[in-house]
Design a protein that fits this description.
- Belongs to the peptidase S28 family.
- This is Serine carboxypeptidase s28 family protein.
- One of its GO terms (biological process) is proteolysis.
- With 497 residues, this protein is of the alpha/beta class.
- The chain has a domain at 52-208 and 421-496: 3-Layer(aba) Sandwich (Rossmann fold), CATH 3.40.50.
- Helices cover 40% and strands 11% of the residues.
- It contains 17 helices and 10 strands.
- The strands form 2 sheets. It has an 8-stranded mixed sheet with strand order 1-2-4-3-5-6-9-10, sandwiched between helices. A two-stranded antiparallel ribbon has the order 7-8.
- α7 (215-227) packs across α10 (268-284) and α10 packs across α12.
- The chain is globular, with a radius of gyration of 23 Å.
- Mean pLDDT is 90; it is low at 2-41.
């Protein structure tokens, strides 16, 4: 959903001109994306052999009856019936803001538990991402929003059940990050289609000032501080040293040499964003095992970054040099990079249209406090409105998400009508403070782990998983099993009646 207060990664080149004129960008890593600057392999992820790729014809618009509404685009989905018995449950992943293979290859939990439940597994790609793009994109961008996406999922699931002659199969939806938000909202909007939802790292309270705007950066900072106070302080001081390059002759060229860039930097803002992205993304994916989600990284990469910083002899290097060395772990863990391209952002996973969503409905206030290790800045609603108007010609609707899906006084509201949602959060995840962290009712459960990162629980199990993660997954399986058993019990009772 994946972060960031002046820049979108894909609007970066435009903004760096602006931010350089204003000196270093304050808050350049804005929550306009739940993920930014993905550095994972550009090669297509390998999925298990039993997945099949299918395409479903979707209406462009589900909520009006104008001629344009019936324009069709083909929505991609992945399906595996390898473990399924007819009549068994259907596990559906509600796709995020990128191509669906990326999420399927990083959400092994669903496949891990499919044999136990004899479940059909389906990953649905979000409209306008990956291959699921309508024609005439510029003229159809207004149809890219979460409400249309949820309707896509509902229609596809109903059609799939009908075609499989398994309309009584219970459906459980899963999602992480923005996909987790969609999973929770899907259960609330379409309870007749999904019997339950596992919403992992879903910051549904990050809107409309329900969560402190500084919580994201404060959490990243605390992750580093918990490992090493010195590490935290070095990073905090490095921004001032970076800014000093603006005041010296040939500062950009000297910084380019220090940062081993492939080309001379055109803007110091790009170097700032490069550093910031490394620390933020690493905190998000501070997994207890090696992973290749945002980038190839070792287990507990925050700890590894701090070891690099703390390993420098006292006084031997500047704070900026130490911060650069630590950030290089994120960008060059394999050691194959001979230089760093800081200004040409790539989009290997098809995230290009998240900027539109962030500028229309996904408006998440963000700031950085003096307590964080990043330069302080205040949330600038007016400035972001201007940037969105400049980039897309649209004005944001900062109150729309809470109007459409709720969130204010969530405990009072959901305990009266909601049910069967698991909100899982790891407190090392910067997005966790925008999530549901307390049980709302007996069936809307918050599973919170102290050491978890960004949807750690949805990753495939490994022999190196710590006991707290195994226990979290056991709890999730038990809750999902309870939902399914209750559904089948009610179904049998209905048939008897």
């Amino acid at each position: 959903m994946e972060i960031m207060s002046i820049l979108l990664c894909l609007m970066f080149l435009f903004f760096t001109v602006v931010t350089d004129a204003m000196h270093l960008p304050q808050g350049s890593y804005h929550p306009l994306s739940l993920r930014q600057n993905k550095r994972a392999s550009k090669t297509k992820p390998e999925l298990p052999f039993h997945f099949r790729t299918r395409y479903f014809p979707q209406n462009l618009d589900h909520f009006s009856f104008q001629p344009e509404s019936y324009r069709i685009f083909h929505q991609k989905y992945l399906i595996s019936s390898h473990f399924w018995r007819k009549g068994g449950p259907i596990f559906v992943y509600t796709g995020n803001e990128a191509d669906i293979e990326w999420f399927a290859s990083n959400t092994g939990f669903m496949l891990d538990i499919a044999p136990k439940f004899q479940a059909l597994v389906v990953f649905i790609e979000h409209r306008f991402y990956g291959e699921s793009k309508p024609q005439m994109l510029a003229k159809t961008m207004g149809y890219l929003n979460s409400q249309q996406a949820l309707a896509d999922y509902a229609i596809l699931i109903r059609s799939l059940k009908q075609n499989l002659s398994s309309e009584a199969s219970p459906v459980v939806v899963f999602g992480g990050s923005y996909g987790g938000m969609l999973a929770a909202w899907f259960r609330l909007k379409y309870p007749h289609i999904a019997i339950g939802a596992l919403a992992s790292s879903a910051p549904i309270l990050q809107f409309d000032k329900m969560a402190p705007s500084s919580s994201f950066y404060d959490t990243v900072s605390q992750d580093f501080k918990d490992v090493s106070v010195n590490c935290f302080e070095v990073i905090k001081r490095s921004w001032g040293e970076l800014e000093a390059f603006l005041t010296i002759k040939d500062g950009k060229q000297k910084l380019s040499k220090k940062f081993r860039t492939c080309k001379d930097l055109q803007s110091l803002a790009s170097a700032s964003l490069w550093l910031e992205s490394a620390f933020v993304d690493t905190a998000m994916v501070n997994y207890p095992t090696a992973a290749n989600f945002m980038a190839p990284l070792p287990a507990y990469p925050v700890e590894q970054m701090c070891k690099i910083i703390d390993g420098f002899p006292l006084g031997a290097s500047s704070n900026l040099e130490r911060a650069f060395a630590a950030a290089s772990l994120y960008y060059n863990y394999s050691g194959s990079e001979i230089c760093f391209d800081m200004e040409n952002q790539t989009d290997p996973h098809g995230l290009a249209f998240w900027g539109w969503q962030a500028c229309t409905e996904m408006v998440m206030p963000m700031s950085s406090s003096n307590q964080s290790m990043f330069p302080p800045f205040e949330n600038d609603d007016e400035g972001e409105q201007e940037l969105c108007m400049l980039a897309y010609g649209v004005k944001s609707r900062p109150h729309w998400i809470t109007t459409e899906f709720g969130g204010q006084r969530i405990e009072m509201v959901l305990k009266r009508f909601g049910s069967n949602i698991i909100f899982s959060n790891g407190m090392q995840d910067p997005w966790s403070r925008g999530g549901v962290l307390k049980n709302i009712s007996n069936s809307i459960i918050a599973l919170v782990t102290k050491k978890g990162a960004h949807h750690t629980d949805l990753r495939a199990a490994t022999k190196y998983d710590p006991e707290w993660l195994k226990e979290q997954r056991r709890q999730e399986v038990a809750i999902i099993e309870k939902w399914i058993n209750e559904y089948y019990s009610d179904l049998r009772q209905e048939e008897q009646d």
